[in-house]
Fold this protein.
Amino acid sequence: MASLQPLTALGRREATTVTHGPLTISERTDVALASVAARNGRAADLAKAAQKADVPLPGPASHQQGTPYSAFWTAPEMWFVEAPYASHELIVDLLKSALADTASITEQTDAWVAFDLSAHDLTRLLERLCNVDFAARPTGYATRTVMEHLGVYLIKHGPGAARLYGPRSSAESLLHAIETAAHSVW
Amino acid sequence: MTQSHRIEGGQIDRTKTLRFTFDGIPYQGHPGDTLASALLANGVRLMGRSFKYHRPRGPISSGSEEPNALVELRTGGRQEPNTRATVAELYEGLTANSQNRWPSLRFDAMGVNDKLSTFFAAGFYYKTFMWPKSFWEKLYEPIIRRAAGLGSVTREEDPDGYDKGFLHCDLLIIGAGPTGLMAGLTAGRAGKRVILADEDFRMGGRLNAETYAVGDAQGADWAAATVAELSSMPNVRLMTRTTVVGAFDHGIYSAVERVSDHLLTPAKGKPRQILWRIYTGRAILAGGATERPIAFENNDRPGIMLAGALRAYANRWGVKVGERVAVFTNNDDGLRTAKDLQSRGVDVVAVIDSREGGDLLPGIRHLRGAEVIDTSGKLGLTSITVRQLNGRSETIAVDALGVSGGWNPNVNIHSHHRSRPVYDPAIAAFVPGKDGPPGLLVAGAAAGQMSTHAALKTGRDAAIAALDLTTAPELPQAEDAPVGITPLWHVAHGKGRAWIDLQNDVTVKDVKLAKQENFTSVEHLKRYTTLGMATDQGKTGNVIGLAIMAELTGRSIPETGTTIYRPPYTPVAMGTLAGRSRGREFKPFRLTPSHHWAKEQGAIFVEVGNWLRTQWVPKPGETEWRQSVDREVLATRKSVGICDVTTLGKIDIQGTDAGAFLDRVYANTFSTLAVGKCRYGLMLREDGIVFDDGTTARMGENEYVMTTTTANAVAVFRHLEFCRQVLWPEMDVQLISTTEAWAQFSVAGPNARKLLEKVVDQDISDAAFPYMGAANITVGGLRARLFRISFSGELAYEIAVPTRYGDALLREMLARGAEFDPIVYGTEALGVMRIEKGHVAGGELNGQSTALNMGLGKMVSKKKDSIGMVLSQREGLTDENGYRLVGVKPVDPQAKLTAGSHFLEKGAAPVAANDGGWLTSKVYSPHLGHDIALGYLKGGDKKIGQRMRIVNLLAGLDTEVEIISPHMFDPEGERLRG
Amino acid sequence: MIIHHPILGPRDAQEFVYLGDANLIDRPDGMVAGVEVFHDYLYNRTNPAGEHQELWYHEQGDRSWLVVTRNTVTHEITRVELARDVARARRRTK
């Protein structure tokens, strides 16, 4: 049978990019995502296996870049691991074979909509959207926060660069909120 | 019209002229003006009518404490009532109207209330409208409602947007007068993150209104230079037009920034106001002080104002309020007004100083030991009557009178955590007390430090103390005059009214009445007289009222005490509190994977939580919802129907103890479930009531996928985390929600398998994939999941693919299965089919019902410990004659049932004592051809086959029904196993 | 309010969901305890005007359940622990 044609979280064929003033919002459909949670009492084993497989497992509230795997902390002994979708669509299978029974691994790719935000400085935008003290946080800071009633993950990649993971079903509402805030600020 | 009362000087931009109207009359002002200053510059003193007595009123202040000059600003959807003209920044095209008057401000018919004032004293409503009781609803209330209130609210939608935001700082400084500026300079130069907020559009506070020097410069110039330095610091955020309105727990403050209120309309996309939530390390309240008047007869006429305001209008705005001015004071600060006005060429005809002795002002008629005892002037002040020390009265023609009764520190925000201010006799005012908001320091006039020098010094010291600084700027030289005050709260004279609270029209007489009726505590005084209960929270009036009560009761002021303040410091518009959460943006939407397809089909959507689910999908020619729903049900039962069930919660549960964990959170057993199978699970709360239900599949040895109801997805996940972390931390269980990761469709009906066989890659014959099977499969090579579960009683599956492919899968199934005429059904048809099958849902999972009530009592295993198992056996929950789920059908197939109707035995009176239970859900069953319902009936399991009535007194229904098994369709379940 | 999360530091209480008295940690064994004991466990809670140990859930955060020691009169929070750690410690001392 013919292969199914995917839609983006915003319901389109191609990823959406929106610009307003200095801000660019880019929907990312090329990220594979999985949760990795250490099995009870197996944190050390997991760390070992992860190191071998080049899966970073950063400390609380942080994101760590890597190739092909990057990761951010989401909960005690739990991480979200990112990888390029093209090569790692089956991220769960890949991680399961690398980490074996040290961790519980669950597909998260399509649970989220990913937006990359870029501007010279995102502080003025983000202060209208969430209670994160963005300016004071270091690059690599990762946190869960609330934007317009939606629970999102916010990762700081620089003063003017951040990635948001929001609930996929609310992608349109989240984008609308960011755009509205952007028009309000700039 | 000319600006007849404009004088030299001030911080207005005379190179530009702004046009505006008040009550339709055009006027001109300048940038830097407020509406009040511009009207005063045009000789307009009368700006409103008072609340109860409709007395003519003009501004008494030049700031946010204003009780009198309340106007309706703007028109149409932007019209805002009760706007204080003293803080409304002038802009080109401003439109304002006076309020609480009819037909006009100068002639107000309700002014008759003034003549009837004896009837409107404190407690009037309580006493007068008590009897006869029958008069209340029809007569008194409508009259009171019509007469009540000041401004009128627009009926149009507010066209402007409002934002919310979050700020963080080491130090928040509230108020940018000399204290706040000095604190800001100290903290800013030390490199700390500082937010300096001021409600005014120009920072500097009283320095802008005074003529003192700070260092080598005029105070206002020093302020401007300091603001310039602070604005060059990247670590300092200056926020003008920003009122800190509340202090909340743990260093959180709220502030309203008026982004666009000084513009005719906000720029496109820009908010009118922003409500900021400010997270602070420490905060300094540098809110200054508010002058209070002295109560004397007829002290409310336009032209009578606070002495400091009179001076501010002259110094800051270049406005003389009158041609012939007098000042009435009990303190040295009042004398400054006389000196400043005289030096600006205003004719100061007299200073009435209630204090005896001391130095006389040079060049001014300075009457010591004198009091103003009355005034006259119908729509504005024309003269005052003065009683001199020797007892002689004299009438002096004046058109403006400045009154100073002393200055009250602005303690408001410091008492937002219920800290009671304490009385400081040295300044005859209340200063911040103990136990204010932790982390909040108070400095300058707000702390009772009244001189400019003290303001600068305490501001600097507060910043040093708040932030543990080791360096600080030099203090500039400034005046350090003591507060020379001899308290005088009201002038004892005559029988006329002397106002205390101008906004709520509370007079000295009302306080006397309160005392006479024994409402002597300040809290009773407040509520009985409404003193301080207006939108200004009594900023100018409260202290006078309680001081008079102290006098009357012979207690000291400290003994009498004071009421406290609550947020907000100044009124906040409702729109600001709502922010962007209104209309379509009230909450975010969640869209299902089939949303775009459904929209193309013209589907009707229903909100389920934040989800928009397809309710039904009308076909051409269908004009009524039932036509669509009946067709969807019949088509599904006849061939095959597809429903998007992505909204059901999905929780991935893994770990070596996953099965044992499920045994503890579900009433029934899951550890024995075979891999590749699913099972219906019933989840209880610890109190034994049913919490949620759903199917859970075992996808691997240590891997389960739990399904929850749409409504409870979040609550169940929270509960599971509680069980995992708090109750059984030793268990090896990991949880994660996967609700949105998978697009899931129910495919139901006799042809469900045949349709699915056309899209899935695996053998799904009954032998290979029996009832309650679960498997990871592929769809054209794409990873997918298949569950053989049924909510409709039909042969049914749920198929899931990664969400991005959901839309395509639906289209693929419809296209490939076209020969089976598949339809897509919505939540209505889903509801019909589940009720036909007797499955419980929202109406039955009502948070009050047990498994036993639902006929599922046997599911609660006693062989293992699970949440709710023990308490489900409580006496009250195991009554043999308790509620049981039953099916209901009308004896007459044409008769209608309504959910919420109550069961009654035949012949029983419709009273609570005879109530047998109620209908929880009702639908029309197109298959059976009549209404059917589910209900909870006392002893219902023993009443199957009996006839009863269902009664709905609200709808006027009394219908004979037959109690039947809740499994109303295919009770043997042959279809779903087919 | 601000809750000082033991892992994440100060977080706004708005991110949390409140449950109630932390005695809910000490759930009796349902195979041993009867209705009376469970009734006490579920319903008999202290409601002090003063220091109180409470369960809070960081729903819009890391999903940790916390035991927060809070003064119900002043809202002062003197101690915040991971409920999991508290539960484990209590089990050890039993």
About this structure: The domain at 17-29+111-185 of chain A is CATH 3.30.1360.120 (Gyrase A; domain 2). The mean pLDDT of chain A is 97. Chain A touches chain C at residues 60-61, 73-76, 131, 143-146, 151 (CB under 8 Å).
